[in-house]
Design brief:
Layout (H helix, E strand, L loop, with lengths): L14 E4 H4 E5 L16 E4 L1 H7 L2 E2 L4 E3 L1 H6 L10 E4 L7 E4 L4 E2 L3 E6 L7 H21 L7 H5 L2 E4 L2 H42 L6 E4 L2 E4 L3 E4 H7 L2 E6 L17 E4 L4 E2 L2 E2 L5 E3 L1 H4 L6 E2 L4 E6 L1 E7 L7 E3 L3 E6 L6 H9 L1 H12 L8 H4 L3 E4 L2 H39 L10
Length: 428
């Protein structure tokens, strides 16, 4: 190992280079939208960050194209295949690899290898991801919101021998492939879930006879009831929100540990993430009478963020709700909480509160209005069966999301080790 001022312990045979020494750095541009000749019937791919969102980081196509006149008549430049695309403003640190010649908007710089025999494009792609993460980290701690071409030129990149670059890229590429496949499984399972919710909550299980109701066709034997009716009949034993009036806690009253105080942002994928909770002392929490949720309550985000639903699952004796949440406490012998949760996630429920929100400029669904909403009620046994089917699908989604998280952490660790030379790959 030899020492270097910028980075110590560079492996033998590796070199530390300024990015400008190994790449041409080409800034993107946006042709004027008002000039139709630059855009209409374009045949030259034009890349933006939206292409990463829709097509992934390996770019084989773009959502938009420009014309030859735009390429010849503006400052936009055509980047060759295998250019690495790095966002240096707005979505700072986003990285993609072009597998087609393309142009980009001004948010991106193209990194074009000066010598592919000594700098493998996929290795540069992963190296750019690494210092892209550094840019994101810096942007969270400072006022930085862009990186100039001059500053980017000074970024350092470690350059191993070409065969080792290829091996590193092969390893990271294999992990990326597993991440992508797992993501596809999640997407397909979530699509299945949406279809099942629609099917099970309107057609049920094995029904052949149906009837029309105020909120659409449902199986005979099912019924439709307002939340107020469900309260009157004892299916829901309590329905309250976190409107605490003068008792509303001030910011200086929160403590490090104690009774959880949760808001809508704590709801994630049908569960309550108590790691995002704030805390009140037991003495302060004891002053709250309404808006105190218990384990098993169905929570509905009804203010500011509207729509997320979750079942509270906690060993805490109680949890204090903020003004953004309402709880629905079921009589579990008459109404299955998981069924209620899935119904409230369905279009049958969301269409009702969206109509309310469309009639006002306020992004909320008052608790009094919630009690007018209609619910579809199968027999208790079928409620359980529907909830069990959807819970099994949720379990598959959860398992694959955890797998994707593990693979993403694995990749992060591998990038740290392999791109620094801390762990060496086997070279024939």
């Amino acid at each position: 190992m030899k020492n270097n001022i910028a980075q110590k312990n560079i492996p033998d045979g590796w070199q530390e280079k300024k990015l400008a020494d190994v790449c041409d750095i080409v800034n993107g541009s946006t042709p004027k939208r008002t000039v139709s000749e630059y855009w209409e019937n374009g045949n030259i791919p034009w890349f933006t960050v939206d292409d990463i969102r829709s097509n992934g980081r390996i770019i084989n196509k773009t959502n938009q194209s420009i014309t030859d006149k735009a390429l010849k008549g503006t400052s936009v430049k055509l980047l060759p295949e295998d250019s690495v695309l790095l966002c240096c403003t707005a979505s700072l640190g986003e990285v993609a690899l072009a597998k087609i010649p393309l142009t980009t908007n001004q948010q991106f710089n193209g990194l074009v290898s000066k010598d592919k025999t000594n700098l493998f494009p996929y290795y540069l792609f992963y190296s750019a991801q690494k210092f892209g993460e550094n840019l994101k980290s810096k942007s969270g701690k400072t006022t930085i919101n862009f990186l100039s071409v001059g500053s980017l030129s000074e970024e350092k990149v470690l350059v191993p021998p070409i065969k080792e670059q290829q091996k590193i890229a092969e390893i990271l590429g294999a992990v990326d492939e597993d991440i992508e496949k797992t993501g596809q499984v999640i997407e397909k399972t979530e699509e299945l879930r949406r279809g099942l919710i629609q099917q099970l909550l309107t057609r049920g299980i094995g029904h052949t006879k149906f009837k029309e109701t105020k909120i659409g066709q449902i199986p005979e034997g099912w019924r439709v009831a307002s939340l107020q009716t469900m309260l009157d009949e004892g299916l829901i034993v309590s329905h309250l929100d976190g409107n605490h009036g003068e008792l509303y806690p001030k910011s200086n009253e929160f403590v490090d540990t104690g009774v959880p105080y949760i808001s809508a942002n704590c709801i994630e994928d049908g569960n309550v993430n108590l790691k995002k909770a704030k805390y009140l002392s037991p003495e302060r929490a004891s002053k709250f009478i309404k808006g105190v949720a218990l384990s098993g309550d169905v929570l509905f985000a009804h203010n500011a963020t509207v729509g997320p639903v979750a079942i509270l699952d906690t060993e805490e004796r109680n949890v204090i709700l903020s003004t953004t949440l309402t709880y629905y406490r079921c009589n579990e012998n008459k109404l299955v909480p998981a069924y209620l949760r899935y119904f409230m996630e369905s279009p049958l429920f969301s269409d009702q509160y969206k109509k309310v929100m469309a009639q006002t400029t306020r992004n909320q669904v008052p608790i009094t209005m919630q009690r007018t909403f209609l619910h579809v009620l199968p027999e208790y046994k079928e409620q359980k069966e529907i909830a069990e089917i959807l819970s099994a699908v949720d379990e598959k989604i959860w398992v694959n999301k955890k797998l994707k998280e593990k693979l993403t952490l694995l990749k992060k660790g591998l990038m740290q080790d392999l791109l620094s030379g801390k762990v060496r790959t086997l070279i024939n």
